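re: the backbone from monday

yeah here it is again, tokenized this time
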């Protein structure tokens, strides 16, 4: 267990340096769509679910014009009301439901 929770940290979302179940909740906002591949996003969501009891994902809507033209958006990521997360690779069309 960490002795003190830091007030700020830079880390890779695919390898979060906190113990399992450390947080009650985690919010990731406008990050996953910038990862290189759908598998990177799967790994990130897995890590978030490992360290937090509840995970909320926010990203651009698949049909938003801003989301379509923004540089660096490689993936579409959508969380349903039930908590399922859908990831679609814009280049390959690969679709994953978590």
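seq for it, each position gets an aa:
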């Amino acid at each position: 267990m960490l002795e003190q929770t830091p007030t700020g940290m830079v880390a890779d979302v695919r390898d979060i340096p906190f113990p399992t179940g450390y947080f009650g909740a985690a919010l990731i906002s406008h990050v996953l769509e910038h990862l290189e591949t759908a598998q990177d996003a799967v790994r990130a969501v897995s890590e978030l679910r490992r360290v937090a009891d509840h995970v909320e994902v926010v990203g651009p809507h698949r049909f938003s014009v801003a989301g379509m033209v923004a540089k660096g958006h490689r993936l579409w990521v959508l969380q349903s009301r039930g908590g399922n997360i859908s990831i679609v690779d814009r280049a390959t069309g690969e679709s994953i439901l978590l």
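Residues 63 and 69 are 11 Å apart (CA to CA). The first helix runs from residue 38 to 51.
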